[in-house]
Amino acid sequence: MERLKQAIVERGIVLSEHVLKVDTFLNHQIDTGLMAAVGEEFARIFQQDGITKVLTIESSGIAPSFMAASKLEVPLVFARKRKSLTMDEHVYASRVYSFTKRTESEIAVSKDFLASGDRVLILDDFLANGQAAKGLIEIVEKAEAVVAGVGIVIEKSFQPGREQLINSGYRVESLARVASLENGRVTFVESEAP
Ligand code: G4P
Ligand code: NA
Ligand code: NA
């Protein structure tokens, strides 16, 4: 998605070879016009897939997911992060290890908001090691619902998340695929020739 790539290049900050800061439009301040366009693009990509729910994870997944769910005319559900691993019979939960933060947390979705028969589009802002996506997939599968696909705003293609999800048989659609953050520069995966 050209407009997104342009925002990444012009307004993103390469913090290190592994971390891209996008606080100006996605992770702190939200560029509402850009996020609306991002959501519309997800809706366009998945419009034929019979999606019944969009599932993301708080907090940064919510903004780009909102317009996608709105355009697809389905509810948006976001998994909550829980600090204490309290027992709760009424949620689907999974553990997510963050390599970036070196912490394990639990994410959970109420059983009221996912059911067998749902075709779920999983969306998130970043795909790095794929731990968040895997946690969301586990929750969908605990609900005996179907993962129709995984949509990502910014994929760091040099980290293993995408390949692991594809190898596990999931469809992954990323709007921007970052090939490298070396030398303080963002380069993208070459898109297929038209
Ligand atoms: P993974 O889910 O793909 O394994 O990623 P990881 O654990 O490494 O990521 C932990 C958090 O850091 C996630 O946000 C993720 O979106 C974010 N993240 C990963 N790589 C980058 C990056 O290069 N730039 C930015 N800006 N964020 C990155 P989170 O903890 O779920 O927080 P929230 O922002 O959703 O509240
Ligand atoms: Na996120
Ligand atoms: Na994040």
Automatic annotation (TrEMBL):
Which biological process annotations from GO are given for this protein? Answer: purine ribonucleoside salvage; xanthine metabolic process; XMP salvage
Provide the top EC class: transferase
Where along this sequence does the record place binding of 5-phospho-alpha-D-ribose 1-diphosphate? A128, N129, G130, Q131, A132
Q: Where is the Phosphoribosyltransferase domain?
A: 35-157
Does Cytoplasm appear among the keywords? yes
Superkingdom, natural source: Bacteria
- Please give the CDD domains that the UniProt record associates with this protein: PRTases_typeI
Provide the residue positions that the database annotates as binding xanthine: L20, N27, K156
Q: Does Glycosyltransferase appear among the keywords? A: yes
Q: Which UniProt keywords apply?
A: Cytoplasm, Glycosyltransferase, Purine salvage, Transferase
Q: Which GO terms describe its molecular function?
A: xanthine phosphoribosyltransferase activity
Q: Cellular component per GO?
A: cytoplasm
Family note: Belongs to the purine/pyrimidine phosphoribosyltransferase family. Xpt subfamily.
Quaternary structure, per UniProt, is: Homodimer.
Summary of the function given for this chain in its UniProt record: Converts the preformed base xanthine, a product of nucleic acid breakdown, to xanthosine 5'-monophosphate (XMP), so it can be reused for RNA or DNA synthesis.
Mind telling me what this protein is named? Xanthine phosphoribosyltransferase
Starting at the broadest rank, the lineage of the source organism is: Bacteria, Bacillati, Bacillota, Bacilli, Bacillales
